[in-house]
Specification:
alpha/beta; GMP Synthetase, Chain A, domain 3; 2 domains; three-stranded mixed β-sheet; 9 helices; binds guanosine-5'-triphosphate
């Protein structure tokens, strides 16, 4: 039975939350949400595989308590945590437990879902030290589990995923399975690419060619997007790339211009084409697509 649910990653600044998220999603997806620090939970990323879909949510005021402990976990943040299926507290193994940590723990007492401790930066500690820390943390809070990880190297992160899956409720995927973020513009911008493909290739490419946004980096002035065009057959790939890449260049340039007009920011667009037979039936296809220099124009 498929499982799905919401997980929040919390912790002090600089403990490795972003690194962990990138490792979990195996992509350099960076989302800067204009709604951050509001009461709405924003989706930071979605991990989908054959067994489960885990939606990682940013709980406002928890993820980046840069205003100090005063505003840390205000009522909204606490409420938003109550709706989670699991919370992951990230703590670095190479720092001693301080006041800030104890404050977080006291707040986490109110959370009803399982709270896991990801003891991060395990690559910086000896086995003995790791064990000592594990025992120390165990005595401080009733964690549903403590998982030593290295967010940087990825060591044991799969164990964390397995653990999270074990507590998720049964249920269908909440978001489309090819989605890594709920960024609303992502779909509109992907449509610009699809539309240009159909325009230039006329009837040669079927309408259900897939556009997968593989990375999205945004700041106030510009957006950099890397997207994969997924087709069924090698012949379609040839058509889209065109002679010496002429076709894909045209598609990219026009789609990029439309995007720039639409978002009012400079858009950098990189496109590549992947052939994936029966991609519609594959739930895991997103993960399987790596960056391929040869396909890149
Ligand atoms: N050695 C080691 N360094 C790590 C590991 N995880 C994260 N780091 C480093 O720790 C620093 C902070 O990591 P971030 O992922 O930015 O931490 P964060 O918790 O997201 O920080 P904020 O964005 O300030 O909340 C970076 O320099 C990372 O490279 C790890 O497993 N091992």
């Amino acid at each position: 039975m498929y499982k799905s649910g919401f997980v929040s990653i919390v912790g002090r600044p600089n403990v490795g939350k972003s690194t962990l998220l990138n490792q979990l999603l195996k992509t350099k997806l960076v989302i800067t949400s204009p709604t951050a620090q509001t009461t709405r939970n924003t989706v930071q990323g979605i991990l989908t595989d054959d067994e489960a879909q885990i939606v990682f949510l940013d709980t406002p005021g928890v993820h980046k308590p840069q205003d100090g402990l005063g505003s840390f976990m205000n009522a909204n943040a606490l409420n938003s945590m109550l709706d989670m299926d699991a919370v992951v507290l990230v703590e670095p193994v190479d720092e001693s437990v301080g006041k800030g940590d104890k404050f977080i723990l006291s707040r986490l007492e109110k959370v009803e879902c399982p709270v896991f401790l990801a003891l991060n930066k395990s690559d910086l500690a000896s086995k003995e030290h790791l064990m000592e820390k594990l025992i120390e943390w165990q005595s401080l809070f009733d964690f549903a589990g403590i998982i030593p990880i290295s967010a940087k190297s990825g060591d044991n992160v799969d164990e964390l995923v397995k653990t999270l899956k074990s507590v998720l409720p049964e249920g269908e995927a909440i978001y489309p399975k090819d989605m890594i973020t709920d960024h609303p513009e992502q779909f509109i911008l992907a449509e610009f690419i699809r539309e240009r493909i159909l325009y230039f290739t006329r009837q040669e490419i079927p309408h259900d060619v897939a556009i997968v946004v593989e990375s999205w980096e945004e700041n106030e002035k510009e957006i950099s997007i890397m997207a994969a065009i997924i087709v069924d057959r090698p012949s379609q790939k040839g058509i889209i790339i065109g002679k010496q890449g002429a076709m894909i260049k045209k598609i990219r340039e026009q789609a990029r211009r439309q995007m720039t007009r639409f978002v009012g920011k400079t858009v950098h667009l990189e496109l590549f084409v992947k052939v994936e037979k029966n991609w519609r039936n594959k739930t895991k296809y997103l993960k399987e697509f790596g960056y391929d220099e040869d396909d890149y124009k």
